[in-house]
Amino acid sequence: MTKKLVILALVLAVAFIVVLPVAMAAEEGAAVDKTANLKYYYITALACAFGIAIAAFGGALGQGRGISSAVEGIARNPGAGGQIQTAMIIGLALIESLVIYTLVVALILLFVNPFGL
What is the rounded distance in angstroms from the CA atom of residue 34 to the CA atom of residue 104? Predict the structure, then answer.
């Protein structure tokens, strides 16, 4: 059941990030006013909040499982603790980089001005 909720949340986040701003920007020929610009930023801010929340949640789950497995491995074989710890730190850095990429994309979406106002 949790996988279905995560997939649904990801689909909604993609819809907020991609579909709605594109649909709003598709109003060609009409004069773009301040309300369209504000609508874009409201929708984008909401989508970015959802995206960062999902990324932080997924990153925290991944890091928790990684640390749990590493501690279990070290407990079973203390002689391999150094190698397990090195692999764990590299894995945690890669997981954290995905969350940071989400933050960068969210900031780019927030600071872009598609209407030229």
Answer: 26
Domain that holds residue 64: 2-25+32-111
Residue 17 lies in a domain: yes
Report pLDDT digits (tens) over 32-84: 566 767 777 888 888 888 889 999 999 999 999 999 999 999 999 999 999 99
Identify the residue whose tokens are 């407990």.
75
Residue 93 backbone dihedrals phi, psi, to 5 degrees: -65, -40
Write down how long the chain is.
Answer: 117
- The tokens describing 63, both together, are 């890091």
Does the residue 98 lie in any domain? yes
- From 14, 8, 1, select the one nearest 51 (Cα to Cα): 14
